[in-house]
Amino acid sequence: MNVKLFDTHTHYDDIKFDEAAGDKKDRADYIRAIMKDNDICGIIGVGVDISSSAAQIDLASKIKGFYAACGFHPENIPKDSDVESGMESLYKLLQKNKVVAIGEIGLDYYWKQNPLKAVQILWFERQLELSERLSLPVVVHSREAHGDCFECVRRHKGSRGVFHSYSGSAEMAKALISNNYMISFTGVVTFKNASRVCEVVKSVPIEYIMLETDCPYMAPVPMRGKVNHSGYLIYTAQKIAEIKNIPVEEVVSITCENAKRFFKISELS
Ligand SMILES: [Zn+2]
Q: How far is the CA of 161 from the centre of ligand 1 (A)?
């Protein structure tokens, strides 16, 4: 292919990659090889707490085309620190080189053991405030919490961002777009029972779509069950091309341009 893919959501610090990387002991070497072998021009490494955010910054410092997002995922809100010191630690990380977004942040009402809704909303809103103050986009995780997530986002008019691994309705996608948000899709679009999300893909103009693997999770068909990586992003691009009835090269190049514009990456570094 003479066009290149941009994987906007990855977790390469995950232990699942320890085995998958095989003899490539150095994670940066492993990622560089995947990028080279699969025409990947850019990757966003997404943190879920302070230590995994620092891991993304470390990878970004070693790999051309790799950038970091730093934030507290709702499942990873620290139990032993208050929101003030959490924001202070996050603020320090956000000053580092190649940090292009705050994420992933949001609300997750699926897991019973997650922090209380009020606690999740507090940390989400404080990170949205930070994004407004620093003019950084946010990467939003929303699971069984679309209504509340949308309300939080709407309360922060100065924020812009992306709803990752989007699972909401077409109506909400439209409302998000008019609030300066993008929509990103994973390999879920390739799953057999994905008719609902495919309807959403159809309804969202390609200019507002980004592609992601969310690796090591969510491997697309025909790789389901395997450890996912950026090399499998092409299956998601192909499915979106099929749904929208346009050439796959067009999906790849437009979504790559969308990602560069969104994360303000003018020249890959
Ligand atoms: Zn994620």
A: 14
Instruction: Give the residue from 9, 6, 8 showing the smallest Cα distance to 216.
Output: 9
Domain total in the chain: 1
List all residues 6 or more positions away from 71 whose beta carbon is below 8 Å from its beta carbon: 46, 47, 48, 53, 90, 102, 103, 104, 105, 127, 138, 139
Question: How large is the C-alpha radius of gyration of the chain?
Answer: 17
CATH number (domain holding residue 184): 3.20.20.140
What is the domain range of residue 81?
A: 5-262
Q: Whole-model pTM above 0.90?
A: yes
Q: What is the pLDDT of residue 20?
A: 82
Task: Using a CB cutoff of 5 Å, list residues around ligand 1, an ion.
Answer: 214
Ligand 1 centre to CA of 155 (Å) is: 23
